[in-house]
Write a structure and sequence with these properties.
This protein is an all-alpha fold. It has helices at 2-18, 25-53, 60-101. The chain has a domain at 43-102. It has 3 helices and no strands. Helix 1 (2-18) packs antiparallel against helix 2, helix 1 packs parallel to helix 3 (60-101) and helix 2 runs antiparallel to helix 3 (60-101).
């Protein structure tokens, strides 16, 4: 899911760059465009694991820790994908633009 969210972000940035946009604007617009789909996907997945994380039935001693880890991974990868990935893409796009200008 984290990789798919990253691919969605990168393809959106590429779409803006193909249009000829420069600077930080393509990154900002891409982040705003993919915000809702990424948050929706993460929320649905995390909510789906809540019954496993709160279960007390037979087998819960295995399910509960697994569900907790998965929910934590979903939350952390979503936050990193929405906060860190745009910064990294900006650095990479900026470096590539400098190389093309030289």
């Amino acid at each position: 899911m984290a990789v798919l969210n990253g691919v969605v972000m990168a393809s959106e940035v590429q779409r803006h760059l193909i249009k000829g946009e420069t600077g930080i604007e393509p990154i900002r617009q891409s982040a705003l465009t993919v915000l809702r789909p990424v948050l929706t996907t993460a929320l649905v997945a995390a909510v789906g694991f809540i019954p496993m994380a709160t279960s007390n039935s037979a087998g819960a001693e295995v399910q509960r820790p697994l569900a907790t880890v998965v929910i934590g991974g979903i939350v952390s990868s979503t936050l990193l994908g929405l906060m860190v990935l745009p910064v990294l893409l900006h650095l990479l796009v900026g470096r590539k633009a400098e190389e093309e200008a030289a």
